[in-house]
Amino acid sequence: MIVLATNTMHNLAREMMTGVKIPFVHIADATAQTIKSKGLRNPGLMATAFTMEQSFYTDRLIASGLSPMIPNETDRAETHRIIYEELCKDVTTAQSTAAYVAIANRLAASGADSLILGCTEVGMLLNQGNVGMPVFDTTLIHCKVVLDYALE
Predict the structure, then answer these.
(1) Quick one: what percent of the chain has pLDDT higher than 90?
(2) Catalytic, out of 8, 34, 58, 119
(3) What is the pLDDT of residues 97-124, one digit of tens each?
(4) pTM of structure
(5) Is the distance from CB of 57 to CB of 128 less than 8 angstroms?
(6) Which end of the chain is more exposed for a tag (fewer CB within 10 A), N or C?
(7) Total structural domains in the chain?
(8) Catalytic (active site) residue 119
(9) How far apart are CA 65 and CA 85, in angstroms?
(10) Which residues, listed in sequence order, are joined to residue 44 by a DSSP beta bridge?
(11) If DSSP codes are grouped into helix, strand and coil, which group holds residue 101?
């Protein structure tokens, strides 16, 4: 099987898999199935701006029967900034954690019933311990689905 161990780069998955016969495990599909198995339908999505704003990821969630919610424009910009200016450089701060928690809380107040950590770095600041709704870490989900598939 082919695994692309990143959320944002799945924007190239269709082109990458054109003409390829090897099975591909899409991170958004794995995440959607896991969320649906818990009876949830309205996940908030915190990720890079590309993943939140382009349709390559959210369309797959929608096709799986979910209604993803993304942060407002200001919150998307801050989420993206923290990923690239801090988390990708292995920098975590209390201020950024507080900002992420506040964004997650605003998503919950807007109707999100769960939260997708839709970038491999978002889990550096958010987890089930500081978010008041079910948290789905795409990195962990993807690894589990790929491992289960490989062991079949």
Answers:
(1) 79
(2) 119
(3) 999 999 999 999 999 999 999 999 999 9
(4) 0.92
(5) no
(6) C
(7) 1
(8) yes
(9) 34
(10) 69, 115
(11) helix
Q: Which residues pair with 43 in a beta bridge?
A: 114
Q: Which domain holds residue 85?
A: 2-151
Residue 143 annotated as catalytic: no
Dig out the tokens for 146 from the structure.
Answer: 């790929």
The span from the CA of 95 to the CA of 63, in Å, is: 36
- Structural tokens at position 143: 């690894």
Sequence-distant contacts of 58-64: CB under 8 A, at least 24 apart: 60/26, 60/28, 60/29, 60/32, 61/28, 61/31, 61/32, 64/28, 64/29, 64/32, 64/33, 64/36
Residue 144 parent element (H or E): helix 138-151
The model's pLDDT over 30-86, given as tens digits with 9 standing for 90+, comes to 999 999 999 999 999 999 999 999 998 999 999 999 999 999 999 999 999 999 999
CATH classification at residue 70: 3.40.50.1860
- In a 13 Å sphere around the CA of 152, the CA atoms on its Cβ side amount to 7
Catalytic: which of 6, 88, 97, 143? 6
Residue 67, classed as helix, strand or coil, is: coil
